[in-house]
Write a structure and sequence with these properties.
Layout lengths: L5 H25 L21 E2 L16 E4 L7 H10 L3 E4 L3 H7 L9 E4 L7 H12 L9 H12 L1 H11 L7 E4 L5 H14 L3 H14 L1 H16 L7 H12 L3 H15 L2 H7 L4 H11 L3
Parallel strand pairs: 2-5, 3-4, 3-5
Antiparallel strand pairs: 1-2
Helix pairs in contact: 1-9, 5-7, 5-11, 7-8, 8-11, 9-10
Length: 300
């Protein structure tokens, strides 16, 4: 039997993981009835890879979201001077930030062009599982992170983020604030739920919302692959990790998104409120606001 050094085994695992992700993304896109990228919605930034335009998505009544007005992203504290130039070219006027005060203190403030308005709408209190995740990221031990972690977080967010999401709708209802970008740390959980709420209010079908959610896999592929291998390497040296193969699968389950994860938001809202309209009404988002946002964001 040929013995493969541990370092080479990790390289093989990394390449296998990258290939698996690419195959997954290609398979997902190929089975869609129509492409979700009718135009190049990704904004290429050196300091943030998950920045994209929410325009062009079709609504159930054959309208479309205008491009160049609403963006979603991960954190913006790593933007380079070249990124800032591109940011200015996009004409963005308002940045809505869902990060907590402690998160902003730890990583630093967003780097933005002069004159851009920052609106802080922190979302916290995501449950004890998040505390377990913080520990897992330090130790590499993901044995306490269930494979349905992302789904559960999306179930919690409509409640923990309710006030912040309601205020986001206030920002969106004022035409003077556009173009707007909203973001959290990686542009996945808090931002993903926000995007789902906004797109749903515009009449975008849920299947399209799931497809938009999955773009984070594509845009964050290199970053996610690197992070999985970093955590797996830590776990290999952690004697508390009994089943290292299963532990790696748990790490991958967290960093490689599934379309079912964002369904946690939908299932919670429908189970508790019966409809998205009822949920938004409970958050004091009225029909007049939704109509104003639709007037701003939807092509006639």
């Amino acid at each position: 039997m040929i013995s493969i050094p541990v370092s080479k085994q990790r390289i093989i695992q990394m390449k296998y993981f990258e290939l698996s992700v690419l195959i997954f993304i290609i398979a997902l896109c190929s089975c869609n009835k129509k492409p979700i990228n009718d135009f190049d919605r990704r904004v290429e930034l050196e300091g943030e890879h998950n920045f994209r335009d929410l325009g062009v998505y079709q609504t159930s009544d054959n309208k479309a979201v205008k491009r160049g007005l609403l963006y979603r992203s991960g954190t913006l504290y790593k933007l380079t001077p070249e990124d800032l130039t591109q940011f200015e070219e996009l004409g963005i006027k308002t940045v809505v930030n869902f990060l907590t005060e402690s998160e902003r203190e730890n990583q630093g403030a967003d780097k933005l062009p002069q004159g851009v308005q920052s609106v802080f709408l922190p979302i916290e209190g995501l449950g004890s599982e998040v505390d377990d995740l913080i520990i897992a990221r330090k130790t590499g031990n993901f044995s306490k992170i269930p494979t349905d972690f992302n789904y559960n977080i999306h179930k919690v967010l409509p409640e923990t983020g309710k006030d912040s999401y309601a205020k986001l709708f206030d920002v969106l209802a004022d035409e003077k604030n556009y173009p707007i970008v909203f973001h959290c740390s990686h542009g996945v959980h808090r931002t993903g739920t926000a995007a789902a709420l906004v797109l749903n209010s515009l009449g975008v079908p849920w299947e399209t919302i799931r497809e938009d959610y999955m773009l984070s896999n594509e845009y964050r592929l290199s970053e996610s692959t690197r992070r999985v291998d970093q955590l797996d390497a830590i776990a290999q040296d952690n004697t508390d990790v009994a089943d290292k193969a299963m532990n790696r699968k748990n790490i991958e389950a967290f960093y490689l998104l599934q379309p079912e994860y964002i369904d946690g938001t939908r299932s919670h809202i429908l189970d508790k409120y019966g409809s998205f309209d009822s949920y938004l009404k409970s958050a004091d988002v009225d029909q007049e606001q939704i109509e104003k946002i639709s007037e701003i964001l939807l092509e006639k």
